[in-house]
Amino acid sequence: MTETHVEHTTTLSTPPCDECGGATRIYGIEPHPRLLHTDINTYVCDTCDTCDTNQVLVVPLARKRG
Ligand SMILES: [Zn+2]
User: Fold this and answer.
1) Which of 3, 14, 28, 53 could cross-link to 24 by cystine, CB 3.0-4.6 Å?
2) pLDDT given at position 13
3) Is the per-residue pLDDT at 39 higher than 90?
């Protein structure tokens, strides 16, 4: 059985809606089709249902040496 260990976690924050300033939630995350280590996050507004996307750099975790 493979054991895993969570060493560091990051809380994802979402940007406010561009249209109404309301709270947004993540609707989807997909890898960028051309840029390495980059995801495309899609957000949807809880108030007006406007969708927006951001490109997010994903930093690979450093491997432990040992
Ligand atoms: Zn909105």
Assistant:
1) 14
2) 84
3) yes
Neighbours of ion ligand 1 (CB under 5 A): 17, 19-20, 22, 45, 47-48, 50
Cα 36 to ligand 1 centre (Å): 30
Angle at CA of residue 43, ends 9 and 41, nearest 5°: 55
The domain segmentation of the chain, as residue ranges, is 10-58
- The runs of H, that is alpha helices, within the chain are none
Tell me the pLDDT tens digit for each residue of 13-24: 899 999 999 999
Report how far ligand 1's centroid is from the alpha carbon of 53 (Å).
Answer: 13
